[in-house]
Design a protein that fits this description.
The chain is of the alpha/beta class. Helix 6 packs parallel to helix 8. The longest helix has 20 residues. It is globular. Bound molecules: nicotinamide-adenine-dinucleotide and thymidine-5'-diphosphate (TYD). Nicotinamide-adenine-dinucleotide (NAD) binds next to helix 1, strand 2, helix 4 and strand 5.
């Protein structure tokens, strides 16, 4: 099988490429990534010489490029996105370009090349947020996004389903909860808090720290996507979750404990505007129909994640200093 993975130089995409090449050594992967601030080829250093793997620097919204690449592959797995809610609050233009225009362009390329299999990677944030006693999100929950990020992802999900209904494009979608694990950019909760503490800095908890997310270890998400790509029913959406609802303050305390730091390292800061209170996923459908469920429990995943950042200081220090952008940007400059 030949896969076009978009956004493969980011957090989840790079974990997915490593996972697929380990599990299916005969598969071929083309990684199309624009190398924005979040794309880092250091995430794939161990893979770059693998003959089954090819990197192409480019924009998923580039019509000719998408058409050329899609022509020659069997499946598109679309991870490429602007993914950080806080950035979408400051400036959402790139979110509209990549998440909506870019996804539309890939759908067109898939349609115009004989109807290629298309898996779109999405988020539980399209469903909006929950009160403390509301039932978890399912595939039947209506969309009610509340940030420019989640609104742009919701638009892409709708377009993906529209290409199934209108053009018979063989699509699937996964709506997954928050991921954590190796190679997560140090602007998101885990990456930022762990690296701040390793640098002796405090951690900024927004508001009262009682916002709840359903945390999933990244490898489990990769396995879920692999399962859907191989066994998923065309035209279906699958909710993917970690069975691990935790308030941010509990994540913070766990990180403090694993790094032997005290509560004095917590700094409560101004809340995020429109901060979603709670996300939770009911993943019964993928469990019953496709046999997937998360393997990594919270304690194990947190331990692995903290260890990874402790052992890969060079990786995150280069990001925090901005140095990581220089080498590859020079190499791939047009
Ligand atoms: P990320 O920000 O770490 O990586 C995104 C990647 O996309 C980067 O490598 C970036 O260079 C690339 N990219 C951005 N714009 C591009 C463009 N126009 N053309 C080509 N490449 C482009 O994101 P992530 O956390 O790995 O998330 C990957 C996907 O999973 C996203 O679609 C996101 O919405 C979804 N998702 C993420 C989470 C999470 O917790 N991180 C949870 C559920 C779903
Ligand atoms: P984040 O990793 O940005 O994911 P998302 O907003 O997509 O869920 O944030 C996870 C939670 O952590 C969210 O409730 C916001 C909170 N948070 C903080 O309290 N402080 C921070 O510095 C960051 C980045 C996030």
């Amino acid at each position: 099988m030949k896969l076009l993975v978009t956004g493969g130089a980011g957090f989840i995409g790079s974990n997915f490429i490593r996972y697929i090449l380990n599990k299916y050594p005969d598969y071929k992967i083309v990684n199309l990534d624009l190398l924005t601030y979040a794309g880092n080829l250091e995430n794939l250093k161990d893979i770059e010489k693998n003959p089954q793997y090819r990197f192409v620097k480019g924009d998923i919204a580039d019509k000719d490029l998408a058409n050329d690449l899609v022509k020659d592959i069997d499946v598109v797995v679309n991870f490429a996105a602007e993914s950080h809610v806080d950035r979408s609050i400051l400036d959402s233009a790139a979110f509209i370009h990549t998440n909506i225009v870019g996804t539309h362009n890939l759908l067109e390329a898939a349609k115009n090349n004989g109807g290629k299999r298309f898996h779109h990677v999405s988020t539980d944030e399209v469903f909006g947020h929950l009160g403390p006693n509301d039932p978890a999100f399912t595939e039947k929950t209506s969309f009610a996004p509340r940030s420019p990020y989640s609104a742009s992802k919701a638009a892409a999900d709708h377009l993906t389903m529209a290409y199934f209904h209108t053009h018979n494009l063989p699509v699937t979608i996964s709506n997954c909860s928050n991921n954590y694990g190796p190679f997560q950019f140090p602007e998101k909760l885990h990456g930022l808090f762990i690296t701040n503490l390793l640098e002796g800095k405090k951690v900024p908890v927004y508001g009262d720290g009682m916002q709840v997310r359903d945390w999933l270890f990244v490898e489990d998400h990769c396995e879920a996507i692999d399962t859907i790509v191989h066994k998923g029913k065309i035209g279906e959406t699958y909710c993917v979750g970690g069975n691990s609802e935790k308030p941010n303050i509990e994540i913070t305390e766990k990180i403090l404990e694993l790094l032997g730091k005290g509560e004095e390292m917590i700094e409560y800061v101004k809340d995020r505007p429109g901060h979603d209170r709670r996300y939770a996923i009911d993943f019964s459908k993928i469990k019953t129909e496709l046999g997937w469920e998360p393997r990594t429990n919270f304690d194990e995943g947190m331990k692995k994640t903290v260890e990874w950042y402790k052992n890969n200081e060079d990786w995150w220090r280069k990001i925090k200093s901005g140095e990581y952008l220089e080498y590859y940007n020079k190499q791939y400059q047009k």
